[in-house]
Amino acid sequence: MEKILTGRTALVTGSTSGIGLGIAQLYAEAGAKVMLNGFGKPEEIARARAEVGAAMGVAEAPYSAADLSKPAAVRQMVQEAQETLGTLDILVNNAGIQFVAPIDEFPDDKFEAIMAINFSSNWYAIKAALPGMKQRGWGRIINIASAHGLIASAEKSAYVSAKHAVVGLTKTVALEIARSHITCNAICPGFVRTPLAEAQLPPLAKAHGVSEEAALTDFLLVHQPSKRWVEVEDIARMALHLCGPGSDGFNGAAISIDGGWLAN
Length: 264
What we know:
By secondary structure, the protein is of the alpha/beta class. It has 2 domains: 9-192 and 230-263, Rossmann fold, CATH 3.40.50; 193-229. The protein contains 9 helices and 7 strands. Strand 1, helix 1 and strand 2 (33-37) form a beta-alpha-beta unit. Helix 1 (18-29) runs parallel beside helix 2 (42-56). The chain is globular and about 55 Å long.
C-alpha cells in the first residue's frame, strides 16, 4: 500500500464495522492517523480498534463513542478528534441506520432517529470540522450516501429522505468551499456485502421459499443489474481516491457504486 495519506488525519463515523471500518482500515494502511466512532459489542469495538491501530503502528486506534443522534455529542466528537489527532484533515460521514415500513405505519421515533443519524449528524460534523480545514487550507469531506440518495424505493421514506438530503448537503457545501482546496463529495453505494446485509438473506429465502442465492439475485438485488454485492473494498478505494493525489477536481459529486442500479 502506497502511503499517500502520510501526515493526514481522519475521523470516520460508523467505523466499528462494515463500510466505515473498511474505509478506516484503508486510510490507516495509506499512512493516516484515524479516529473511529460507532456502536457495537465491546469485543467488536476492541477488535476494530486493534485492527486499525495495527495499520497505524499503535496498540489501538483512538475511538469516540459519540451518539450521533445528539448534536452536542457530534460537536464534541469532532473537537476530540482534533485534539487527539492534532488536526482533522478528512471527515467521513458514514454512520447510518435503517427501518422499513409504509409511511402511514412508520413510527415517529424511527423517523426522527434516521433523520438525526443519517443526515443531521453530517451537517453538524461538517459545521464543526470546516473551520480547522479552512485555517489549514486543505480538507476532504466524504459523505456516504446511498443509491437511495438518488432514487427511491417503497417503504423507506425516512431513509430515502435522509440520503437525498445528504446529497443536497454535499452539493451545497461543495459550492461554499469551491475556491479552496477543500472538497465535499458523496459516495452512493448500492447493496454492499456486510454482515448486516448478509443477515437479511436467510429470512428472505424462508419467506419466499427459495435458496439464499435466489433470494439474493431475485429479491434483495432485484434493482442491481450486476446481481452481485458491491464489496466494501470498492467503497473504501473510492474514499481513498477522493483524498489522494489527483482528487482536487472532485467536488460536489454524487458517485454511484451500485452495480448498474442507476443505469436502469
